[in-house]
Amino acid sequence: MKRFLVVVATLLFSAATFSQNSSLEKFLADSVLNHASVSLYIADAVTGEPVAEYNSTKSLNPGSVLKLVTTAAALEILGPEYTFKTRIAYTGTLNKRNGKLTGDIIITGGGDPCLGSNNFPDNYNDFITKWIGEIKRLGIKKIEGRVITDDSYYDYQPVPGKWLWEDAGNYYGAGAYGLSVFDNTCEIHINTAIDSLKPLIIRIVPEETRIIFHNHLTGSGSVDKGYVYSAPYSNTGWIEGTVPVNREDFILKASITDPPMLLANIINQRLEKEGIKISGEPGTFRLEEQKPNEELFAIAEISSPPLSYIIEVLNHESVNLYAEHLVKEMGKKMRNSGTTDAGIEVIMEFLNKSMISTTGMFIDDGSGLSPLNSINAREHVNLLIYMKSRSNNFDIYFNSLPEAGKEGTLKNYFKDPLFESNLKAKSGSMTRVRSYAGYFKTLSGRNLAFSIIVNNYTGSSKYLINNIEEFLKGIIINK
Fold first, then answer.
1. pTM, rounded to two decimals
2. Span 356-367, mean pLDDT?
3. To pair with 10 at 20 to 30 A between CA atoms, which of 74, 85, 343, 470?
């Protein structure tokens, strides 16, 4: 009887092993991967025991799953309660008898990635109106000076140098400024119902966005293939490609090229509408020869949501801007340098101290938008295991990941019942790049961490994603 049970157990184990191996082999053998590079690693999230792997140490472009590295480092280094502050103050002297301010209104940025963002309406709650109200309450009726934004908190290179020109002008390529506002995104409203061959720009929101877009769009089909080309701090750009036809108000989202200047313009115009006369033109410290060294008299201060809230939106919706801000903020706090390079140094130091090998790991930004980023699946999973087993911030980190088939970038994927309330992961997508990383549980109750990175696949991304889903289903069932 014992021998019989041993034989049965051996057969069952062999069948399960064969099923797992065949599942992986089937995934890798599909023609969609004929010319592709794949790095894949799945391990027990508790013990670290490998469950499945293929080229797990091969460095590949991870796309947006790089955000799992950035957000892990930010949680551990800055802490979940960390907030960013933006201040408004005045300089000079205020004559309260006649309401004349001989000095400037100064808005000082503190690196807040989401000031005025629609992602956090309750936190900011029309902060500009509140600021205008505070200025009026001081009795200011005339300003012999200017409205100036202090954007010197970070460096003046908002867009990482290795990003693609095609990306920088669009909303997802918005740069990180010392003073960012409205997600550094403007809306270009377009009418294609009148003449599809020459779509008409009808307005830009915010209207104070001082950039002229040269329009080279045409209308075609029902899919948005319009691209905006512009550079940071420029006042001109152009739009090319196609936008859907028969639309009276189609919205194309672009990056704001100079958010600090935009905010200065908005505050200036709002004050003038309230009857407050201003003698000088609005400006930014970037455009000044040197930063004025004058005493600031506080008017108001606004804080961002806690970092834990920001990271939840960042990973759920894959917000590149927030990730780039976090990189610069880590550089600012740990190296006193608000630059992307300094922030990346801090991230690499965190990984090394956490026993995550950085050999063959190349990081050029925080969001994964650079085509030169490169990591491998094994160390990616090791980071996920570190966060689960050693971090006090794991619950926040885990909850920031979209739930399969329900939330964020996974809303339309992994809808099989096997994934429901089971798999939480970050997705990554660029041209010829698809990647997923996160956590799931098998039917036997094992908690697993996984990373799958695919570069240069052929065919449709939908077909590849379906194959990834089938492969992971095999692991859930058999392991």
1. 0.94
2. 96
3. 470
